[in-house]
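Notes to self, Response regulator:
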Amino acid sequence: MKKSVLIVENDHDIRTIVELILLEQGFQTLSMPEPDDLAEIVVFRPDLILLDEFINNKPGHRLCRKIKQVPDLAGVPVIILSTANDIELIAKECDANDYIRKPFDLEDMVEKVLRFLDHQSLAL
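result:
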């Protein structure tokens, strides 16, 4: 069964590239600029969430905190994506499992996702 990754990213180009790369790696993906509500995430049942820190001018770390409070999602790893200088602190405070500083190298992003999902990598 394919592992699934939810990509919540405000920037359309980044969202599309990340989704294409993860699809090439054999993941099932769902990407969106912003979820309508947490139920949408619960229904998808992702194995990992890549979460932009800035979602339509709202802080993504608030969504991360909400995700971690939902029993069906609490164990799902969340990786925060951000250009913020204090992204390490932001990720820690919202109980994200890790962070990726933008701009990022796609191979590094894939390696981080693979580490969390114990998935065998295909060459980029």
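- The longest helix spans residues 12-24.
- The chain has a mean pLDDT of 92.
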